[in-house]
Amino acid sequence: MDKPIIQVKNLNFWYGPKQALFDVNVAITPHRTTAFIGPSGCGKSTLLRCLNRMNDLIEHTRVDGQIILDGQDLFAPEVDVIALRKRVGMVFQKSNPFPKSIFDNVAYGLRIQGMKNGSELADRVEQSLRKAALWDEVKDRLRESALQLSGGQQQRLCIARTIAVEPEVVLMDEPCSALDPTATAKIEELIQDLEKYYTIIIVTHNMQQATRCSDFTAFFYLGKLIEFDATEKMFTNPGNKQTEDYITGRFG
Predict the structure, then answer these.
(1) 34 lies in a domain?
(2) I want to staple 228 with a disulfide (CB 3.0 to 4.6 A). Which of 78, 163, 170, 218 is the partner?
(3) What is the DSSP letter of 167?
(4) In what helix (H) or strand (E) does residue 26 lie, and over which residues does it extend?
(5) Cβ atoms within 10 Å, residue 252
(6) What percent of the chain has pLDDT over 90?
(7) Could you tell me the pTM of the whole model?
(8) What tens digit of pLDDT does each residue of 214-232 get?
(9) Which strands, in side-by-side order, build the sheet including 18-28?
(10) CA separation for the pair 175, 177 (Å, rounded)
(11) Residue 163 domain-assigned?
């Protein structure tokens, strides 16, 4: 078994007085896709947003426990949150391209990091669009507005923008929930290609998507991690009755 890239240890999380996560422990394997599943409000997106401290942006939140990335506790006072979000990128539920050209969307993070060389930028933009399986569709339209792309293309553009800065981990919060089946299939295929380069964690409501895309699955219910295992085992022979009831559609 590979050494985990992320270890979540005894993690508790509160929105104001309401506790959203209870004593979560989970280890994430590098270069694999892990799915977080469970009914709405079970804590899966809250945990995802803890992994790059997006929850810091919400007032009156509180956390205790540890999240260790490559040996460093993400909540340690010396952690640079901007640098952390470069290492742990995020793709949101609703595609959110900037109102800029396709090229400028992908180059955005690179420019913030100080990359000015035009040919270097162009190379990285092309590499990122190729990895996001979008290059062939947009290579002649790079100066056009990203907002002219279809929903599925916009989501792949957001993936290209996220991976352009070469993160170690890519978080995806229900990346297909607003997409049609064809666009969804492209993103799912892409996820399997991207795990060669990145560790991927995906939150999904869709059981079939979890089985198609992920190597490991974590099932959450009411803020607790109920079960974590290899996806194939969890969906064919879950160790917990609650997991079985959820994945067979008896509740949730």
Answers:
(1) yes
(2) 218
(3) -
(4) strand 18-28
(5) 16
(6) 92
(7) 0.94
(8) 999 999 999 999 999 999 9
(9) 18-28, 6-15, 61-69, 72-73
(10) 6
(11) yes
* Residue 1 located in a structural domain: no
Q: Which of 188, 137, 124, 131 is nearest to 146 (CA)?
A: 137
- In percent, the amount of the chain with pLDDT more than 70 equals 99
Residues 86, 109, 186: CA angle, nearest 5 degrees: 85
Q: How far is CA 79 from the centre of its chain?
A: 20
Domain limits for position 80: 6-247
- Whether 173 has a pLDDT exceeding 80, the answer reads yes
The helix (run of H) or strand (run of E) holding residue 43 is: none
Report the interhelical angle of 151-164 vs 118-131 (nearest 10°): 130
Helix ranges (DSSP H) in 132-228: 135-138, 151-164, 181-194, 207-213
Residues 76-115 have pLDDT tens digits of: 999 999 999 999 999 998 889 999 999 999 999 999 989 9
Residue 232 domain flag: yes
- Taking CA atoms, 244 is separated from 75, 109, 136, 248, in Å, by 34, 42, 42, 6
Overall number of domains in the chain: 1
